[in-house]
Amino acid sequence: MKNLIKEVKAIYDTFDASHDFQHIERVLQNAESILVAEPDADKEIVRIAVLLHDVSDKKYTDSKEAEERLLQSLDLSEEKIQHIREIIASVSFNGGNELPAKSLEAKIVRDADRLDAIGAVGIARTFAYGGAKGRKLYDDEEEARMAMTEEEYRSKNTSSVTHFYEKLLLLKDLMTTEKGKQMAEERHRFMVTFLEQLKNEREGKA
């Protein structure tokens, strides 16, 4: 694990602050919290999947070379490696076109990652990514899309606030573990409060 952490950290340190190694550390922490409530899960598989889940993220690369290279470097059976591949593939939201999380481990990793996309950290990450991509903070003329293809989701440079309505505010109801659902509640409420305050400030009401 120490070698794997060193390898993935070198990759994540090349990404912007929304998907750097601190993101991975927080997702690991979320996963550990969920694992306490899910003792039947394979902890090793969960931890490795968390470490690898963004190394070949489509936002940063068109290749799965890093993911495959790191998977093949592990002393694991092909069955376990394939399990990790399937977990990683099921994590992404993809504009609502997500793959099903078929295993308990996939559900834990997905929830752990999505918890880091909401709440105070989620707000910070959204604007960090938006800034890195040159996106507007908000656009009052822009309408949130409730149905779109993965290509449409990734290709349109929508404002950061619009992203809350197209994805982040939907995540609470998409949690798959009981612990994940519990942890998402307060984070979701904080985002709603933030958006209300932001709107009031923009309109001169606060």
UniProtKB/TrEMBL annotation:
Pfam families the record matches: HD
Segments traversing the membrane: none
UniProt superkingdom: Bacteria
Listed CDD domains: HDc
InterPro entries associated with the record: HD/PDEase_dom, HD_domain
Residue stretches making up the HD/PDEase domain: 16-127
The protein's name in its UniProt record: HD/PDEase domain-containing protein
Originating organism: Ureibacillus xyleni
Taxon lineage: Bacteria, Bacillati, Bacillota, Bacilli, Bacillales
